[in-house]
Amino acid sequence: MKSMKKNKEWPSLRFARMNVESAEEVSQFILWLCGWLPATDPLADDDREPMDSEDLLEHLWGWSGAPKMRMAKLLWQQLVGNNSESYFDQQFSSNPAYLVPEITPSIGQLIPIQQNLRWILEARMEREREDALIGQGSWGEDFWLPRDQAAYLRQQIRRASPDLIEEKSLYEDSMEYTSFPYFELDSDEADRTYVGTVDEEFRAFVEIVDSHGNRWPLKFPRSPYKVEPGTGFFWGYGGHGPYNLALAILADAVGGDYELSDELRSGFLKQVLMETPQADRLQISRAEVMAWLETKGVSAVQLKEAAARVAKLRDSNQQKIAEFTLRMETIHKKGGLVAQRFDIVPADFECALYLDLMQNLERTGWVLRCSHCKQALACPRTPTGNRQRARWLAGSPVYHEDCFAKHRLAHKRAYWQKRTETSGFRDSERLRAQKRRRVS
Ligand SMILES: [Zn+2]
To answer: Is the dihedral of CA 15, 18, 21, 27 positive or negative?
Structure first.
Protein backbone atom coordinates (compact mmCIF):
# COMPACT_ATOMS: atom_id res chain seq x y z
CA MET A 1 0.00 0.00 0.00
CA LYS A 2 1.35 3.38 -0.90
CA SER A 3 1.06 5.88 1.89
CA MET A 4 -1.64 8.33 0.89
CA LYS A 5 -2.96 11.49 2.44
CA LYS A 6 -3.01 10.87 6.15
CA ASN A 7 -6.15 9.01 7.07
CA LYS A 8 -7.67 10.06 10.33
CA GLU A 9 -8.53 7.02 12.35
CA TRP A 10 -11.97 6.41 13.78
CA PRO A 11 -11.83 6.14 17.61
CA SER A 12 -13.91 2.93 17.61
CA LEU A 13 -11.50 1.21 15.21
CA ARG A 14 -8.46 2.43 17.10
CA PHE A 15 -9.95 1.13 20.35
CA ALA A 16 -10.64 -2.24 18.71
CA ARG A 17 -6.99 -2.76 17.78
CA MET A 18 -5.16 -1.51 20.86
CA ASN A 19 -4.00 -3.46 23.89
CA VAL A 20 -6.71 -2.59 26.41
CA GLU A 21 -4.92 -4.46 29.18
CA SER A 22 -2.12 -1.89 29.13
CA ALA A 23 -2.92 1.20 31.23
CA GLU A 24 -0.19 3.04 29.32
CA GLU A 25 -1.89 2.36 25.99
CA VAL A 26 -5.30 3.27 27.35
CA SER A 27 -3.94 6.54 28.75
CA GLN A 28 -2.34 7.26 25.35
CA PHE A 29 -5.73 6.61 23.77
CA ILE A 30 -7.38 9.09 26.16
CA LEU A 31 -4.77 11.74 25.32
CA TRP A 32 -5.09 11.01 21.61
CA LEU A 33 -8.87 11.53 21.87
CA CYS A 34 -8.20 14.89 23.53
CA GLY A 35 -5.79 15.81 20.74
CA TRP A 36 -2.91 16.09 23.21
CA LEU A 37 -0.45 13.60 21.79
CA PRO A 38 2.88 14.91 20.58
CA ALA A 39 3.27 15.13 16.82
CA THR A 40 5.82 12.29 16.77
CA ASP A 41 2.95 9.84 17.14
CA PRO A 42 2.41 8.33 13.67
CA LEU A 43 -1.35 8.46 14.15
CA ALA A 44 -1.51 12.01 15.46
CA ASP A 45 -3.24 14.41 13.14
CA ASP A 46 -1.02 16.44 10.92
CA ASP A 47 -1.04 20.10 11.88
CA ARG A 48 -0.29 21.25 8.38
CA GLU A 49 -3.54 19.91 7.02
CA PRO A 50 -6.45 22.36 6.96
CA MET A 51 -9.07 21.99 9.65
CA ASP A 52 -12.16 20.09 8.51
CA SER A 53 -15.59 20.25 10.13
CA GLU A 54 -14.75 17.47 12.60
CA ASP A 55 -11.56 19.21 13.72
CA LEU A 56 -13.53 22.38 14.16
CA LEU A 57 -16.06 20.65 16.42
CA GLU A 58 -13.23 19.32 18.58
CA HIS A 59 -11.60 22.72 18.60
CA LEU A 60 -14.65 24.82 19.47
CA TRP A 61 -16.49 22.54 21.85
CA GLY A 62 -15.44 21.32 25.25
CA TRP A 63 -15.86 18.16 27.29
CA SER A 64 -19.60 17.85 26.79
CA GLY A 65 -19.81 18.71 23.12
CA ALA A 66 -16.70 17.62 21.22
CA PRO A 67 -17.33 13.94 20.35
CA LYS A 68 -13.75 12.73 20.86
CA MET A 69 -13.12 14.75 24.01
CA ARG A 70 -16.47 13.62 25.35
CA MET A 71 -15.50 10.01 24.69
CA ALA A 72 -12.24 10.56 26.57
CA LYS A 73 -14.13 11.99 29.53
CA LEU A 74 -16.66 9.12 29.58
CA LEU A 75 -13.86 6.56 29.44
CA TRP A 76 -11.94 8.25 32.26
CA GLN A 77 -15.09 8.58 34.38
CA GLN A 78 -15.90 4.91 33.93
CA LEU A 79 -12.37 3.80 34.82
CA VAL A 80 -12.09 5.95 37.95
CA GLY A 81 -15.70 5.09 38.89
CA ASN A 82 -16.85 8.66 39.46
CA ASN A 83 -19.33 10.58 37.29
CA SER A 84 -19.32 13.86 39.18
CA GLU A 85 -18.48 16.95 37.14
CA SER A 86 -16.46 18.61 39.88
CA TYR A 87 -14.42 15.43 40.45
CA PHE A 88 -13.54 15.41 36.75
CA ASP A 89 -12.64 19.12 36.77
CA GLN A 90 -10.33 18.65 39.72
CA GLN A 91 -8.81 15.24 39.10
CA PHE A 92 -8.47 14.71 35.39
CA SER A 93 -4.90 15.19 34.32
CA SER A 94 -3.14 15.01 30.96
CA ASN A 95 0.01 13.85 32.70
CA PRO A 96 0.48 10.08 32.19
CA ALA A 97 2.26 9.94 35.57
CA TYR A 98 -1.13 10.64 37.21
CA LEU A 99 -3.36 9.18 34.54
CA VAL A 100 -1.84 5.68 34.37
CA PRO A 101 -2.06 4.74 38.10
CA GLU A 102 -5.59 6.17 38.29
CA ILE A 103 -6.94 3.87 35.60
CA THR A 104 -4.80 0.78 36.27
CA PRO A 105 -7.03 -0.95 38.89
CA SER A 106 -10.14 -0.99 36.68
CA ILE A 107 -8.57 -1.51 33.28
CA GLY A 108 -10.05 -5.05 33.07
CA GLN A 109 -13.51 -3.53 32.44
CA LEU A 110 -12.41 -2.71 28.93
CA ILE A 111 -11.77 -6.31 27.87
CA PRO A 112 -15.42 -7.37 27.31
CA ILE A 113 -16.16 -4.00 25.67
CA GLN A 114 -13.36 -4.58 23.19
CA GLN A 115 -14.35 -8.24 22.64
CA ASN A 116 -17.90 -7.26 21.68
CA LEU A 117 -16.68 -4.53 19.39
CA ARG A 118 -14.26 -6.92 17.67
CA TRP A 119 -17.04 -9.48 17.29
CA ILE A 120 -19.10 -6.91 15.42
CA LEU A 121 -16.21 -5.68 13.28
CA GLU A 122 -15.25 -9.26 12.51
CA ALA A 123 -18.74 -9.89 11.15
CA ARG A 124 -18.55 -6.70 9.15
CA MET A 125 -15.18 -7.64 7.60
CA GLU A 126 -16.43 -11.11 6.63
CA ARG A 127 -19.62 -9.64 5.26
CA GLU A 128 -17.65 -7.21 3.15
CA ARG A 129 -15.98 -10.05 1.28
CA GLU A 130 -19.14 -12.17 0.94
CA ASP A 131 -21.25 -9.24 -0.19
CA ALA A 132 -18.77 -8.45 -2.92
CA LEU A 133 -18.90 -12.08 -4.10
CA ILE A 134 -22.68 -12.16 -4.43
CA GLY A 135 -22.85 -8.65 -5.83
CA GLN A 136 -24.58 -7.27 -2.78
CA GLY A 137 -24.45 -3.49 -2.61
CA SER A 138 -24.44 -3.00 -6.37
CA TRP A 139 -28.13 -2.05 -6.24
CA GLY A 140 -27.83 0.25 -3.32
CA GLU A 141 -28.79 -2.26 -0.65
CA ASP A 142 -25.92 -2.58 1.74
CA PHE A 143 -26.26 -5.64 3.92
CA TRP A 144 -24.35 -4.55 6.94
CA LEU A 145 -24.37 -6.94 9.86
CA PRO A 146 -25.67 -10.40 10.75
CA ARG A 147 -28.70 -10.55 13.03
CA ASP A 148 -27.01 -10.99 16.45
CA GLN A 149 -24.40 -8.32 15.87
CA ALA A 150 -27.03 -5.95 14.48
CA ALA A 151 -29.12 -6.50 17.61
CA TYR A 152 -26.20 -5.71 19.90
CA LEU A 153 -25.25 -2.59 17.98
CA ARG A 154 -28.89 -1.46 17.93
CA GLN A 155 -29.17 -1.97 21.68
CA GLN A 156 -26.03 0.14 22.23
CA ILE A 157 -26.94 3.09 20.02
CA ARG A 158 -30.49 3.21 21.40
CA ARG A 159 -29.05 4.15 24.77
CA ALA A 160 -27.98 7.47 23.24
CA SER A 161 -30.38 10.36 22.96
CA PRO A 162 -30.80 13.12 20.40
CA ASP A 163 -30.47 16.48 22.07
CA LEU A 164 -29.95 20.17 21.56
CA ILE A 165 -26.76 20.70 23.51
CA GLU A 166 -25.21 23.96 24.57
CA GLU A 167 -22.08 25.36 26.07
CA LYS A 168 -21.34 28.78 27.45
CA SER A 169 -18.34 30.51 25.99
CA LEU A 170 -15.48 30.49 28.49
CA TYR A 171 -15.28 34.22 28.66
CA GLU A 172 -16.64 36.17 25.72
CA ASP A 173 -15.16 34.52 22.66
CA SER A 174 -16.19 37.15 20.14
CA MET A 175 -14.08 39.70 22.02
CA GLU A 176 -11.06 37.46 22.63
CA TYR A 177 -8.71 39.10 20.14
CA THR A 178 -9.70 42.66 20.91
CA SER A 179 -6.45 44.36 21.83
CA PHE A 180 -5.92 47.62 23.69
CA PRO A 181 -2.83 49.76 23.04
CA TYR A 182 -2.70 50.80 26.70
CA PHE A 183 -3.86 49.43 30.05
CA GLU A 184 -7.21 50.93 31.10
CA LEU A 185 -7.13 51.90 34.75
CA ASP A 186 -10.06 51.05 37.03
CA SER A 187 -8.74 53.16 39.89
CA ASP A 188 -6.21 55.96 39.91
CA GLU A 189 -5.95 56.15 43.69
CA ALA A 190 -2.26 56.25 44.65
CA ASP A 191 -2.79 53.90 47.62
CA ARG A 192 -4.14 50.94 45.66
CA THR A 193 -2.83 47.43 46.28
CA TYR A 194 -2.55 44.30 44.11
CA VAL A 195 -3.88 41.25 45.94
CA GLY A 196 -3.69 37.68 44.64
CA THR A 197 -5.39 34.68 46.27
CA VAL A 198 -5.42 30.98 45.47
CA ASP A 199 -8.58 28.90 45.97
CA GLU A 200 -8.81 25.27 47.09
CA GLU A 201 -8.63 24.12 43.46
CA PHE A 202 -5.38 26.02 43.05
CA ARG A 203 -6.77 28.73 40.81
CA ALA A 204 -5.35 32.22 41.23
CA PHE A 205 -7.39 35.42 41.30
CA VAL A 206 -5.85 38.91 41.32
CA GLU A 207 -7.64 42.10 42.35
CA ILE A 208 -6.91 45.77 42.76
CA VAL A 209 -8.07 47.02 46.17
CA ASP A 210 -8.20 50.72 47.07
CA SER A 211 -8.02 52.31 50.55
CA HIS A 212 -11.84 52.28 50.85
CA GLY A 213 -11.98 48.55 50.21
CA ASN A 214 -13.31 48.88 46.64
CA ARG A 215 -12.22 45.97 44.47
CA TRP A 216 -11.63 45.49 40.74
CA PRO A 217 -10.44 42.23 39.21
CA LEU A 218 -7.14 42.90 37.44
CA LYS A 219 -7.60 42.93 33.66
CA PHE A 220 -5.51 40.74 31.39
CA PRO A 221 -2.89 42.96 29.71
CA ARG A 222 -3.13 43.92 26.02
CA SER A 223 -6.20 41.73 25.31
CA PRO A 224 -8.43 42.31 28.35
CA TYR A 225 -11.27 40.17 26.92
CA LYS A 226 -9.11 37.14 26.37
CA VAL A 227 -9.86 35.71 29.80
CA GLU A 228 -12.18 36.65 32.64
CA PRO A 229 -10.71 39.64 34.53
CA GLY A 230 -8.71 38.56 37.59
CA THR A 231 -7.71 35.23 36.00
CA GLY A 232 -4.92 34.08 33.70
CA PHE A 233 -2.32 35.10 36.31
CA PHE A 234 0.01 33.39 38.75
CA TRP A 235 3.20 33.98 40.74
CA GLY A 236 6.01 31.99 42.37
CA TYR A 237 7.58 30.65 39.15
CA GLY A 238 8.64 31.89 35.73
CA GLY A 239 5.74 30.82 33.49
CA HIS A 240 3.13 32.41 31.28
CA GLY A 241 0.74 33.46 34.08
CA PRO A 242 3.44 35.25 36.14
CA TYR A 243 4.78 36.94 33.02
CA ASN A 244 1.34 38.40 32.24
CA LEU A 245 0.87 39.38 35.87
CA ALA A 246 4.17 41.30 35.84
CA LEU A 247 3.04 43.24 32.79
CA ALA A 248 -0.46 43.96 34.15
CA ILE A 249 0.78 45.21 37.55
CA LEU A 250 3.53 47.39 36.08
CA ALA A 251 1.22 48.84 33.42
CA ASP A 252 -1.43 49.61 36.02
CA ALA A 253 1.11 51.18 38.40
CA VAL A 254 2.64 53.50 35.79
CA GLY A 255 -0.75 54.69 34.53
CA GLY A 256 -1.32 52.33 31.61
CA ASP A 257 1.88 52.54 29.55
CA TYR A 258 3.10 49.31 27.96
CA GLU A 259 6.37 50.66 26.58
CA LEU A 260 7.95 51.19 29.98
CA SER A 261 6.30 48.10 31.50
CA ASP A 262 7.58 45.84 28.71
CA GLU A 263 11.14 46.93 29.40
CA LEU A 264 10.92 46.09 33.09
CA ARG A 265 8.62 43.09 33.23
CA SER A 266 11.34 40.40 33.28
CA GLY A 267 13.11 42.05 36.18
CA PHE A 268 9.86 42.51 38.09
CA LEU A 269 8.97 38.89 37.48
CA LYS A 270 12.32 37.60 38.76
CA GLN A 271 12.84 39.97 41.66
CA VAL A 272 9.29 40.33 42.94
CA LEU A 273 6.74 37.82 41.63
CA MET A 274 8.97 34.75 41.69
CA GLU A 275 9.89 35.53 45.31
CA THR A 276 6.33 34.95 46.55
CA PRO A 277 5.62 31.21 46.92
CA GLN A 278 2.80 29.92 44.72
CA ALA A 279 0.63 28.78 47.62
CA ASP A 280 0.97 32.12 49.43
CA ARG A 281 -1.27 35.15 49.15
CA LEU A 282 0.27 37.87 47.00
CA GLN A 283 0.09 41.42 48.24
CA ILE A 284 2.00 44.34 46.72
CA SER A 285 1.03 47.95 47.14
CA ARG A 286 1.39 50.36 44.27
CA ALA A 287 3.81 52.33 46.46
CA GLU A 288 6.06 49.26 46.65
CA VAL A 289 5.94 48.85 42.87
CA MET A 290 6.92 52.52 42.44
CA ALA A 291 9.76 52.11 44.94
CA TRP A 292 11.01 49.09 43.00
CA LEU A 293 10.86 51.13 39.75
CA GLU A 294 13.02 53.74 41.42
CA THR A 295 15.66 51.14 42.27
CA LYS A 296 15.67 50.28 38.56
CA GLY A 297 16.50 53.90 37.76
CA VAL A 298 13.10 54.88 36.38
CA SER A 299 12.97 58.68 36.68
CA ALA A 300 10.06 61.08 37.19
CA VAL A 301 10.67 62.33 33.64
CA GLN A 302 10.24 58.82 32.25
CA LEU A 303 6.98 58.40 34.17
CA LYS A 304 5.74 61.73 32.80
CA GLU A 305 6.57 60.64 29.25
CA ALA A 306 4.72 57.39 29.85
CA ALA A 307 1.64 59.28 31.04
CA ALA A 308 1.79 61.49 27.94
CA ARG A 309 1.94 58.44 25.65
CA VAL A 310 -1.14 56.96 27.34
CA ALA A 311 -3.07 60.25 27.10
CA LYS A 312 -2.36 60.38 23.38
CA LEU A 313 -3.42 56.75 22.83
CA ARG A 314 -6.55 57.26 24.90
CA ASP A 315 -7.55 60.19 22.71
CA SER A 316 -7.09 58.40 19.44
CA ASN A 317 -8.77 55.20 20.64
CA GLN A 318 -11.65 56.71 22.55
CA GLN A 319 -14.36 55.78 20.08
CA LYS A 320 -13.09 52.26 19.51
CA ILE A 321 -12.96 51.57 23.22
CA ALA A 322 -16.45 52.98 23.79
CA GLU A 323 -17.70 50.51 21.15
CA PHE A 324 -15.96 47.56 22.82
CA THR A 325 -17.37 48.50 26.20
CA LEU A 326 -20.89 48.80 24.82
CA ARG A 327 -20.65 45.47 23.03
CA MET A 328 -19.43 43.77 26.20
CA GLU A 329 -22.29 45.26 28.21
CA THR A 330 -24.81 44.05 25.63
CA ILE A 331 -23.34 40.54 25.76
CA HIS A 332 -23.67 40.51 29.55
CA LYS A 333 -27.23 41.83 29.44
CA LYS A 334 -28.16 38.93 27.13
CA GLY A 335 -26.69 36.48 29.64
CA GLY A 336 -23.41 35.79 27.86
CA LEU A 337 -22.55 34.04 24.62
CA VAL A 338 -23.85 30.50 24.20
CA ALA A 339 -23.16 27.93 21.50
CA GLN A 340 -25.84 25.39 20.61
CA ARG A 341 -26.03 22.48 18.22
CA PHE A 342 -27.96 19.26 17.64
CA ASP A 343 -26.16 16.14 18.71
CA ILE A 344 -26.68 12.51 19.63
CA VAL A 345 -25.44 12.19 23.16
CA PRO A 346 -23.98 8.85 24.32
CA ALA A 347 -24.96 7.40 27.71
CA ASP A 348 -21.48 6.08 28.49
CA PHE A 349 -18.16 5.14 26.92
CA GLU A 350 -19.35 1.93 25.23
CA CYS A 351 -22.36 3.75 23.82
CA ALA A 352 -19.98 6.47 22.53
CA LEU A 353 -17.90 3.80 20.76
CA TYR A 354 -20.97 2.55 18.91
CA LEU A 355 -22.09 6.05 17.94
CA ASP A 356 -18.66 6.46 16.42
CA LEU A 357 -18.95 3.11 14.66
CA MET A 358 -22.42 4.07 13.44
CA GLN A 359 -21.04 7.19 11.80
CA ASN A 360 -18.07 5.30 10.46
CA LEU A 361 -20.27 2.67 8.76
CA GLU A 362 -22.62 5.33 7.52
CA ARG A 363 -19.92 7.51 6.01
CA THR A 364 -17.15 5.19 4.95
CA GLY A 365 -19.25 2.05 4.61
CA TRP A 366 -16.42 -0.39 4.12
CA VAL A 367 -14.31 -2.08 6.73
CA LEU A 368 -11.25 -3.98 5.51
CA ARG A 369 -8.87 -6.20 7.44
CA CYS A 370 -5.32 -5.00 8.06
CA SER A 371 -2.82 -7.62 6.86
CA HIS A 372 -0.45 -6.87 9.74
CA CYS A 373 -2.60 -6.70 12.92
CA LYS A 374 -5.67 -8.46 11.40
CA GLN A 375 -7.95 -5.77 12.84
CA ALA A 376 -10.44 -3.51 11.12
CA LEU A 377 -9.36 -0.72 8.81
CA ALA A 378 -11.79 1.95 7.64
CA CYS A 379 -12.00 2.50 3.92
CA PRO A 380 -13.61 5.70 2.64
CA ARG A 381 -15.88 5.81 -0.42
CA THR A 382 -13.37 7.76 -2.46
CA PRO A 383 -11.38 6.76 -5.57
CA THR A 384 -8.43 5.89 -3.30
CA GLY A 385 -10.73 3.90 -1.02
CA ASN A 386 -12.21 2.10 -4.04
CA ARG A 387 -8.76 1.03 -5.20
CA GLN A 388 -7.80 -0.11 -1.73
CA ARG A 389 -10.99 -2.16 -1.43
CA ALA A 390 -10.40 -3.72 -4.83
CA ARG A 391 -6.89 -4.72 -3.79
CA TRP A 392 -8.22 -6.23 -0.59
CA LEU A 393 -10.96 -8.16 -2.38
CA ALA A 394 -8.35 -9.49 -4.78
CA GLY A 395 -6.37 -10.81 -1.80
CA SER A 396 -3.62 -8.15 -1.79
CA PRO A 397 -2.46 -6.80 1.56
CA VAL A 398 -3.78 -3.55 3.04
CA TYR A 399 -2.48 -1.89 6.21
CA HIS A 400 -3.07 0.72 8.90
CA GLU A 401 -0.50 3.44 8.41
CA ASP A 402 1.55 2.51 11.49
CA CYS A 403 1.11 -1.21 10.74
CA PHE A 404 2.54 -0.63 7.28
CA ALA A 405 5.66 0.91 8.79
CA LYS A 406 6.05 -2.03 11.19
CA HIS A 407 5.43 -4.53 8.41
CA ARG A 408 8.07 -2.94 6.20
CA LEU A 409 10.62 -2.92 9.00
CA ALA A 410 9.97 -6.58 9.84
CA HIS A 411 10.18 -7.48 6.16
CA LYS A 412 13.52 -5.71 5.72
CA ARG A 413 14.97 -7.32 8.84
CA ALA A 414 13.91 -10.79 7.72
CA TYR A 415 15.38 -10.18 4.27
CA TRP A 416 18.78 -9.08 5.56
CA GLN A 417 18.92 -11.86 8.12
CA LYS A 418 18.24 -14.41 5.41
CA ARG A 419 20.79 -12.90 3.04
CA THR A 420 23.58 -12.69 5.62
CA GLU A 421 22.98 -16.31 6.65
CA THR A 422 23.33 -17.57 3.09
CA SER A 423 26.85 -18.58 2.12
CA GLY A 424 28.11 -16.75 -0.91
CA PHE A 425 25.94 -13.72 -0.14
CA ARG A 426 28.87 -11.71 1.13
CA ASP A 427 30.93 -12.68 -1.91
CA SER A 428 28.20 -11.62 -4.29
CA GLU A 429 27.82 -8.33 -2.43
CA ARG A 430 31.58 -7.76 -2.77
CA LEU A 431 31.41 -8.42 -6.51
CA ARG A 432 28.51 -6.01 -6.84
CA ALA A 433 30.45 -3.33 -5.00
CA GLN A 434 33.49 -3.86 -7.23
CA LYS A 435 31.33 -3.55 -10.33
CA ARG A 436 29.84 -0.33 -9.05
CA ARG A 437 33.31 1.08 -8.44
CA ARG A 438 34.41 0.18 -11.95
CA VAL A 439 31.42 1.92 -13.49
CA SER A 440 31.94 5.13 -11.59
ZN1 LIG B 1 -3.07 -2.86 11.47
So the answer is: negative
Question: How far, in Å, is the centroid of ligand 1 from the Cα of 11?
Answer: 14
Closest residue by Cα to residue 345 from 91, 12, 74: 74
Q: How far is the CA of 406 from the centre of ligand 1 (A)?
A: 9
Determine the number of helices (DSSP H) and then strands (DSSP E) in the chain: 16, 8
Give dist(CA 377, CA 17) in Å, integer. Answer: 9
User: Could you read off the pLDDT of 382-415 as tens digits, one per residue?
Assistant: 888 889 888 888 889 999 988 999 888 888 888 8
Q: Which of 375, 440, 416 is nearest to 15 (CA)?
A: 375
> Lowest mean pLDDT: which of 123-127, 141-145, 261-265, 311-315?
141-145
214-251: pLDDT as tens digits: 999 999 999 998 888 999 999 998 888 999 999 999 99
Distance 18 CA to ligand 1 centre (A): 10
SS3 state at 285:
strand
| Selection from 213, 221, 210, 193 nearest residue 281 by Cα | 193
Query: What's 108's DSSP letter?
Result: G
Contact present, 1 and 404 (Cβ < 8 Å): yes
Report how far ligand 1's centroid is from the alpha carbon of 407 (Å): 9
CA 75 / ligand 1 centre spacing (Å): 23
> Residue ranges of the domains in the chain?
11-162+342-399, 175-333, 400-440
How close is the Cα of 312 to the center of ligand 1, in Å? 64
Model's pTM, two decimal places? 0.69
Measured in angstroms, how far is the CA atom of residue 431 from the centroid of ligand 1?
39
**Gap from CA of 403 to ligand 1 centroid (Å):** 5
Query: Cβ distance 274 to 243 under 8 Å?
Result: no
